[in-house]
Amino acid sequence: xxxxxxxxxxxxxxxxxxxxxxxxxxxxxxxxxxxxxxxxxxxxxxxxxxxxxxxxxxxxxxxxxxxxxxxxxxxxxxxx
Length: 80
Prior knowledge:
mainly alpha; single chain; 81% helix
């Protein structure tokens, strides 16, 4: 088994509330990165795309914090 998969399989279980908050933190960080890149680009087209991406990440933050989608919080937990 590849080491990166082994690491995922040996991870301790996460409580539902903890997973929700870890997922939200992951999504919030991605939103922050998109917003920072939008502020740094001179191209209006790219700025608009990055700002929309930041808004989409923030939507995921709200869903994760509300517990609306356990699947999304699991992704954030595993990736983040």
